[in-house]
Amino acid sequence: MKHNNLTRLLALSLLITGIYSDCEKNNNYHGIPDVYVNFSINLNLPAYSGLNVIGGYYLFENEGYKGIIVYHAPDDLFYALETACPYHPMDSCAEVTPDLSGIFLRCGHYEGNDFFACCGSNYDMYGNVIKDPAVYPLKRYKTQRDGDMVYVFN
Asked: How confident is the model at residue 8 (pLDDT cuts 50, 70, 90)?
């Protein structure tokens, strides 16, 4: 009888562990669908000249789920961030955009100089939450630089 209870306990713990780890794998970005990302940026092209400057960024509207912002950080690395806000990513307005200062990202959109907030969350240019209600960072894609080329992929 003790052996049977031990077997049941072991099976139950394995089941719970499996469910928990499956949830962790599927919810890394809390509702943002995984999409295939693989594109390159030629830093010599005039369209991307802003990325040659530390602090520069470029919005690729047709990449990722809702778009990807590529940022040239002070550490001279490039960061690629999904623009879908992880707070409520399926809301049509849940898209981050750089603040006019270019120092942080806000959930919402601009019409001219007027900002229309969606959830009100703010993020630094590395994708970390700096203002609620969001609790999860922006989804990051991998980047690799090779000379004048920057590759963005997952």
From this structure: low
d(CA 128, CA 31): 17
Residue 66's closest CA among 80, 84, 81, 79?
Answer: 84
User: What is the rounded distance in angstroms from the CA atom of residue 135 to the CA atom of residue 132?
Assistant: 7
Radius of gyration for the alpha carbons in the chain, expressed in angstroms and rounded: 20
Q: How would you classify the pairing of strands 38-42 and 149-153?
A: antiparallel
pLDDT in tens, 105-153: 999 999 999 999 999 999 999 999 999 999 999 999 999 999 999 999 9
Residue 68, strand partner residues: 60, 82
Query: Which pTM was predicted?
Result: 0.80
The torsion defined by the Cα of 45, 47, 52 and 55, in degrees rounded to 10, comes to -170
